[in-house]
Design goal:
Residues 8-68 form the HTH tetR-type domain. By secondary structure, the chain is mainly alpha-helical. Helix content is 70%, strand content 0%. Helix 8 runs antiparallel to helix 9.
């Protein structure tokens, strides 16, 4: 009997190949032929699953977004466990900005390439670059509210608690900025991690 092919698995194989090509040569160098070669399949098979380069690039972007969402979900679920403080759950999630391993570096590099291209390429929808961070920011707000309920947040000099919505936006912005700084060599992963810890030290009591 002919071997059955899992179409979702094959699509994932092809989108993973695009991400690897983009991480190595740059998103602007991606072609259907290069993606096929990286995936070890024929160009015809790539075209069977993705009618053109635009649809392939959007599928890879959706894959990257799902990776980020999954990572965040794991960190959020850890925070719900009373044995882990919200601060440590947030720090574990933000550690991806340190770009200290190949997977996180590839993710940051390709995601940034997509975001840059979306600013000038009408073929790429810019909305995913807003929806993704908006979702994370909203969930950061929920986590910080959880921390406030657990008395984990440090009070400010005037005796009040930090504004969680503003703090969530600040944490996310810091995370993105540090990721870019590491990618271009301005900061080392260790320096980025130290900056994140310094900020969280001032926000949390523990």
């Amino acid at each position: 009997m002919p071997k059955l092919v899992d179409h979702d698995q094959r699509r994932r194989q092809i989108t993973d190949a695009l991400i690897q090509v983009a991480a190595t040569s740059g998103l602007h160098q991606v072609t259907m032929r290069k993606v096929a070669a990286q995936a070890g399949v024929s160009v015809r098979l790539v075209q069977y699953f993705f009618t053109d380069k635009a649809s392939l690039m959007m599928a890879a972007l959706e894959h990257l977004t799902q990776q980020s969402n999954d990572r965040w979900t794991r960190a959020r679920d850890q925070a719900i466990d009373e044995e882990m403080s919200v601060r440590h759950a947030i720090e574990a999630f933000l550690a991806a900005a340190a770009v200290d391993d190949r997977d996180s570096r590839v993710f940051q590099l390709v995601w940034t390439s997509y975001a840059t291209m979306a600013m000038t390429d009408p073929g790429l929808a810019a909305r995913p670059f807003i929806d993704g961070p908006d979702r994370v920011e909203a969930e950061l707000v929920e986590l910080l509210e959880l921390a406030a309920n657990r008395d984990e947040l440090a009070t400010r000099s005037d005796g009040t608690l930090p504004a969680v919505a503003i703090e969530a936006a600040r944490i996310l912005t810091l995370n993105h900025g540090l990721g870019t700084s590491v990618l271009i060599g301005q900061k080392t992963p260790e320096q980025a991690a130290a900056i994140l810890r310094y900020h969280l030290d001032g926000l949390f009591d523990r």
